[in-house]
TrEMBL record:
Pfam family, one: Phage_portal_3
Designated name of the protein: Anti-CBASS protein Acb1-like N-terminal domain-containing protein
InterPro entries: Acb1-like_N (IPR024459), Phage-assoc_HI1409 (IPR006445)
Anti-CBASS protein Acb1-like N-terminal domain segment(s): 35-381
Organism: Methylobacterium isbiliense
Length: 420
């Protein structure tokens, strides 16, 4: 086996001095903030990669599970604090610069003092401010495993030197980098690993666009051209002659030349055209590579329908929305846990561990699909009632909850309340 491998290396050059990939070496080159900002402002693909994911994560927002009056109070508190807009801006900054923070403000005049949830009453939150990574400085990572801030910065400082207690900071990370790999309290910009693919995609489109003016070129072979151009008078006469020829071609669609086009004394006219076949596939390949690197399907990133027979792109979008839902559960929900506990106290004036929320689904169900699901559930309920497999009171309560939450019949919830 060793001999076969060695012979293969000798024949193909793989692993030897002739192997072109033998000298490949990955070297980390951090992207400067100015370069990231310029890419975000001037490159449409980089901007969409940064903006699309936060927008989709917060597009449908969340559905609080509590009595209607408490849900209304919590949602009113979210609106008053501008939580959704603040979080969207912070997530975009985190993806662009590698990290961001939200400063939680209460009535305390000293941001260096701890923000204790038990001391917060109804209406206790005053503001939520977004701080970019460069507007806040993270202190040393807490190493004490008994500390509630273990693994997080033990302190923060604003750009002006004002210390801030970590209980007042909601930290958001862009592309996480393990500490063992050189990471710090924040992370990398998502463009750090994607900018090369983005540049290739935009450069491919730019090169194709630059070829369009050269798609058709008129070529005229003129006997004695060098001799005619050797004098000012010859250059002037030649320029005037072909200027007139170009104007005649534009007016009458014809080009008049001297001679038969074959003899040495006659001029010869040719038209050269570039072949663009295959170039669209090359540009599409680079765009697909950039979309794959960003973990965003082409149908969402470019807003185009997939090509091919019976191709709808539903599977790609469904996988992408499942990915977004997983990020909401794994990344966003834990990051918001401290703020949500304060938000409930701010809205209700008390802790409410029984109150919870769920992220609304991103994949919207069509009216036809809702009707079909409703028909199947109605048939199931009718079968359970007919076969007496479920107490009627329990089944009626379940059907009522389904009809109220299914959004099939507007006003049905008010009608149920009125009937009682």
């Amino acid at each position: 086996m060793w001999l076969a491998d060695r012979l293969a290396n000798l024949v193909t050059g793989l692993g030897g001095p002739r192997d072109k990939s033998a000298g490949n070496l990955h070297v980390h080159v951090p992207r400067a903030r100015a370069e990231l900002d310029a890419a975000y402002r001037d490159n449409w693909l980089a901007r969409k990669i940064v903006d699309v994911v936060p927008f989709d994560m917060l597009r449908e927002w969340r559905d609080w599970q509590a009595p209607p009056a408490e849900v209304a109070a919590i949602e009113a508190a979210e609106t008053a604090l501008g939580l959704r807009e603040v979080l969207l801006r912070a997530l975009r900054l985190a993806r662009l610069h590698g990290g961001a923070a939200i400063l939680i403000g209460d009535a305390s005049p000293d941001p260096a003092a701890p923000l204790r949830p038990e001391s917060l009453g109804q209406g206790g939150l005053r503001y939520l401010h977004v701080l970019g990574r460069h507007a806040i400085q993270a202190g040393e990572i807490e190493r004490d495993p008994l500390s509630p801030w273990f693994g997080e910065p033990a302190s923060y400082g604003l750009a002006g030197g004002q210390p801030v207690h970590p209980s007042r900071i909601l930290r958001l990370v862009g592309a996480p980098v393990p500490e063992e790999a050189g990471g710090d309290a924040f992370g990398d910009s998502v463009l750090q690993a994607l900018l090369e693919a983005v540049d290739h995609a935009t450069a491919a489109a730019a090169h194709i666009a630059a070829m369009l003016p050269e798609a058709k070129q008129d070529v005229i072979s003129v006997p004695g051209l060098s001799q005619a151009l050797s004098t000012d008078e010859g250059t002037r006469r030649l320029t005037e002659r072909f200027g007139y020829a170009a104007r005649m071609k534009s007016m009458f669609g014809m080009l008049l030349l001297e001679g038969d086009g074959r003899s040495p004394e006659g001029e010869r006219y040719q038209q050269k055209q570039l072949d663009f076949s295959g170039l669209p596939e090359v540009a599409r390949l680079f765009l697909q590579t950039a979309a794959g690197a960003a973990d965003i399907p082409v149908t969402r990133l470019l807003g185009q329908s997939p090509a091919g027979l019976n191709a709808t792109g539903d599977a790609d979008l469904r996988n992408y929305y499942d990915h977004i839902a997983a990020r909401q559960a794994v990344e966003l929900t834990p990051a918001l846990a401290r703020l949500d506990a304060l938000l409930v106290r701010h809205a209700l004036g008390r802790p409410a561990p029984e109150v919870w929320y769920a992220w609304r689904p991103l994949l919207q169900t069509s009216e036809r699909d809702k009707a079909e699901i409703g028909r199947l559930r109605a048939e199931t309920a009718a079968t359970l009632a007919r076969e007496a497999l479920c107490p009627r009171e329990v089944l009626a309560a379940g059907v009522e909850g389904w009809l109220v939450n299914a959004d099939l019949f507007p006003g049905i919830e008010a009608a149920y309340r009125k009937g009682r």
